[in-house]
Amino acid sequence: MCENSTMSVTILGIESSCDDTSAAVIRDGIILSNVIAGQKVHEAYGGVVPELASRAHQQNIIPVVHEALKQAGIGKETLDAIAFTRGPGLLGSLLVGTSFTKGLATALEIPMVEVNHLQAHVLAHFIKADESDTKHPAFPFLCLLVSGGNSQIILVRNWNDMEVIGQTIDDAAGEAFDKCAKVLGLGYPGGPMVDRLAKEGDPMAFRLSKPVVAGYDYSFSGLKTSFLYLIRDALKEDPDFIEKRKNDLCASLQYTVIEVLMDKLRKAVKDLKIREVAVAGGVSANSALRKAFEEHAEKYRWNIYIPPFAYTTDNAAMVAMNGYFKYLDKDFSSMDIAPFSRVVI
Q1: Which of 26, 82, 34 is nearest to 314 (CA)?
Q2: Direct distance between the N- and C-terminal alpha carbons of the chain, in angstroms, rounded to an integer
Q3: Which has more confidence, 59 or 83?
Q4: For residues 64 and 23, is the Cβ–Cβ distance under 8 A?
Q5: Rounded to whole angstroms, how far apart are CA atoms 111 and 107?
């Protein structure tokens, strides 16, 4: 997979693609620290405000990196390289992480390693808690990457050889959760609140639209629209409809989104005859999706890989892990590199 290295390799990872500032230290694939600073300022706006996000990153990045090094018990002089998220993400936020990395790498005279944010989510499965931690997917494997901005099925042939074989043609699954949650008055981010309320609801209470899309691609805009129309029409009959049926609405929404995701994943597994199956991204924290994975593993004899909750949302541990693999292959970045808001795997 990578060149063998007899010397210990210590990587600092920096993640600043959206509204979480994160720094982590990984040594030879083993996690030493993973520090995340969130930004509550966006809750009042029902979504991430790019300008506010980049300003908060500027305030957070130095103390977050300091804390990551402190928790790892190392000095910055111990670092062999710095891995950073180049994209995709919010350009202003990415610029903060990229600029900081350039400055620190120059000062320490060590290489910097660019990381694709989406690939990093997939490679979070290779982060080791300690030397005895050997549970990770075998190549090739399929990974369902689901987050607020992405819903993809990825064929992973190797750590540096990934192909998107299916993706959303409109809204991502997490985006559908957030937008529908906003209509229900649940605030932002909506996904975790939908998950919590759905546990008390009936997933069969309401039938929602499931768009038919060819191949392994997804579509969630029709589902979202049918959800909005359902509420609009019901509110005409009963102004208290949302409050009375909130749990059932969340359960029905969650059930339909997960059914759409798993239908396509099941088709990909069957067609490609690959039973090593992983899930990654923020929506992989959803309890119903995790349960669906476990049920599929039992029914279809899949070998499944579900990340620890710490590695589901945006975090620097996954960036450092990707950077570690790239370091072993001497895949370094030049100082004139610029971030991109849209990057494909």
Answers
A1: 34
A2: 18
A3: 83
A4: yes
A5: 11
Extended strands (E) in 132-281 = 141-146, 151-158, 161-167, 276-280
Q: Which residue has the tokens 């909750």?
A: 309
Token pair belonging to 77: 């002089």
Going through 120-209 in order, the beta strands assigned E by DSSP cover: 141-146, 151-158, 161-167
Q: Report which residue type is found at 282.
A: G
pTM of the model: 0.91
Packing angle of the helix pair 191-198, 173-183 (nearest 10 deg): 70
Is 284 a residue whose pLDDT tops 60?
A: yes
CA distance 251 to 268: 26
CA 118 to chain centre: 7
Task: Say yes or no to pLDDT of 43 above 70.
Answer: no
Strands of 276-280's sheet in order across: 161-167, 151-158, 141-146, 276-280, 303-305
The pLDDT tens digits of the residues spanning 71-92 come to 999 999 999 999 999 999 999 9
pLDDT for 56:
83
